[in-house]
Task: inverse folding
């Protein structure tokens, strides 16, 4: 298939581009480069041995999106593009709703006009809200605790409604948990703008000397060491899950909409991850305990059995490998991608 990957220069998108090409698909990338650097593109070509066509546009630029669909002969779409910082979304809710919903609506219009009927959507475990039982299962009600999460809930609803009304559109909703790690080459990895919002890149930047110490938000949760438990999944496993979902839709043309969790099904605490990263890197990771953050859950992990049973997909990499691959990326690229 010839696959349009929106947000294909970003963290998860770039790894999925490599995996799609390795699986025999052709790829076209669209990215606004708001959360990504153009210097990732030659690294994608280096890793894949192929030219990767890239269109630097915003999906809300409807005329440019239309031109891409008219010229590129797209068979399917993997949709990552969107703003993604939970804290920032609370400060800039209008921008998040406008960007994330507007991008998806414009994409759907272009897909309909050009009869592209297959979409794999980058959703999130945030759609389970604050009260879901663990392990989290796809049949649980959806909710959210912040504007970013609500954009995911709303996009899932939009995609489901359009697919049911259209009768031909197929949608995979991939709800993933805490992506970490990097390509084993160390050539591509997570490179957040400014202060990292997530644990792993912050720990990596402390280890490499970019930041003085980590703040651990709360050590009084009802967990074995008092720090929150999260389901960390290697980005390479996550990329494989997108390819598996795409190929499942192709093999099941009768399917309209299906949600799958992508996670390991195991919780790892903040302090366990810090300890594992120190072991993998051989570097001390100084930290201090701070007050809990509003909205943080004590425990969050997936039931991945649906993806295992239906997609034949299973997370294969453990926490030690997640840390080793992150350190390989961060130590080789201490300042991230070149500007």
Result:
């Amino acid at each position: 298939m010839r696959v349009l990957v929106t947000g294909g220069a970003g963290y998860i998108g770039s790894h999925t581009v490599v995996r799609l090409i390795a699986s025999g698909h052709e790829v076209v990338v669209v990215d606004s480069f708001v959360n990504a650097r153009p210097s990732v593109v030659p690294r994608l070509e280096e890793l894949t041995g192929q030219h990767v066509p890239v269109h630097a546009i915003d999906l809300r630029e409807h005329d440019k999106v239309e031109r891409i669909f008219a010229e590129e002969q797209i068979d399917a779409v993997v949709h990552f593009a969107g703003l993604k910082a939970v804290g920032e979304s609370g400060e800039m809710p209008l921008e998040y709703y406008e960007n994330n919903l507007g991008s998806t609506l414009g994409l759907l219009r272009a897909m309909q006009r050009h009869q592209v009927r297959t979409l794999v959507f980058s959703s999130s475990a945030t759609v389970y809200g604050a009260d879901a039982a663990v392990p989290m299962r796809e049949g649980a009600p959806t909710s959210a605790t912040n504007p970013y999460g609500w954009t995911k809930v709303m996009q899932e609803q939009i995609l489901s409604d359009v697919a049911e009304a259209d009768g031909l559109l197929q949608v995979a909703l991939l709800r993933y948990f805490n992506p970490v790690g990097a390509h084993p080459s160390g050539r591509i990895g997570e490179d957040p703008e400014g202060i990292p919002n997530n644990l792993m890149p912050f720990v990596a930047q402390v280890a490499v000397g970019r930041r003085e110490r980590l703040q651990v938000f709360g050590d009084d949760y009802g967990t074995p060491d008092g720090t929150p438990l999260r389901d960390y999944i290697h980005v390479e496993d996550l990329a494989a899950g997108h390819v598996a979902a795409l190929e499942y839709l192709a093999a099941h043309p009768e399917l309209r909409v299906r949600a799958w969790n992508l996670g390991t099904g195991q919780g790892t605490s903040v302090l366990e991850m810090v300890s594992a990263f120190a072991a993998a890197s051989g570097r001390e990771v100084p930290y201090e305990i701070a007050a809990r953050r509003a909205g943080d859950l004590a425990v969050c992990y997936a039931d991945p059995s649906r993806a295992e049973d239906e997609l034949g997909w299973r997370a294969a990499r453990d926490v030690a490998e997640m840390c080793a691959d992150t350190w390989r990326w961060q130590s080789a690229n201490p300042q991230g991608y070149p500007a």
Observations:
- Residues 66 and 113 are 9 Å apart (CA to CA).
- The radius of gyration is 19 Å.
